[in-house]
């Protein structure tokens, strides 16, 4: 590897933890600058013949945490996520660069109410935001997470714990195909915002494109300004 | 040094030739933007060409659609590593806008400005000579809001964050002024074949 290599650094996978049937956390030791909640890393894998594949993954860990946590969902037909799920072991090294991203970020202290909405694995950057909030709780925060099944609600015990410990943090999790059989629609959003009792001053939406766009339009229809809604989409 | 146990999935020969470094082919058309698609009423839509704060020319939707139209077919590349092959676009070139306005380009740099307050800088050399469009159609259909409709910039030879969605104008600037992402660590030009993703890339 050349000395100048686009700021790529070598990270070591320190440990791996299962989150859901299709999602695992990879805890990295990486010589990178500190991140802001909501940012992501670029990850690069290299085959013996020099072929490289690159993906971006959101950071789940709290800013300042000793290990960088990437929570990676196994994609159907995934090239890089399949390596993480089927090959990666503690001690393996990967190339990383970042942290990256300067818009979908949240930094305390923040006085105004914040709404976080995640679809599926879109929860990852919002977990980092929730953890950053927990380290310096101030304004009310409402986190809505929608996944297909109850088992797919990654980070549920921890997020429920944050909510149980501090009434300023509200956590609502729904699954669309089992259990409660609910999705984040107009009625559900009205109910959640009504219970919460705030109009969000800032919203962070992350998930599949159609999900993010639908929730964004519901929020706009409820009087939230376009520029108060920050989005991150995939697929 | 290679990654233990990673063999990767090679693109076919045609895709390998067409993919800039670090890119992968997608069959989808992913959506990336700062926030939700703004609601734009075509009756109120305008496209304005400016030199600094001074308007050079302005078109409403009806007038804009009466301008000469140009089609472009080819591959597009997003900095988030997806590339989409064989896309079809239709719109108006900057050359035709300048001709319709009856003016010469007053400076060598521009800022594309959007209805959602997004902006991005593009040198004149990357917009003129038919290299870019103000696109109103994709795949023969009017551009949908999530893909930037009613009109977006299309600069297909640069990373796609330069192809500003929901465009409302182009502003000539005296210097190369950084736009939204360029102020947040992205490259000032963004050539995918030179892999100019971030400001510290060559």
Automatic annotation (TrEMBL), chain A:
InterPro entries named in the record: Cbr1-like_FAD-bd_dom, FAD-bd_FR_type, FNR_nucleotide-bd, MRET, OxRdtase_FAD/NAD-bd, Riboflavin_synthase-like_b-brl
GO MF annotation terms: 2 iron, 2 sulfur cluster binding; oxidoreductase activity
PANTHER family: NADH OXIDOREDUCTASE HCR, PROTEIN RFBI
Cofactor or coenzyme needed: FAD
Record key words, sorted: 2Fe-2S, Iron, Iron-sulfur, Metal-binding
UniProt cross-references to Gene3D superfamilies, sorted A to Z: Nucleotide-binding domain of ferredoxin-NADP reductase (FNR) module, Translation factors
Protein name as it appears in the record: Oxidoreductase
Source organism per UniProt: Pseudoduganella plicata
Signal sequence bounds: none
FAD-binding FR-type domain mapped to chain residues: 6-106
Keyword Ribosomal protein tagged: no
TrEMBL record, chain B:
Annotated ranges, domain Oxidoreductase molybdopterin-binding: 35-181
Superkingdom, natural source: Bacteria
Pfam families reported for this sequence: Oxidored_molyb
Renumbered residue ranges of the record's region Disordered: 1-28
Name the record gives this protein: Molybdopterin-binding protein
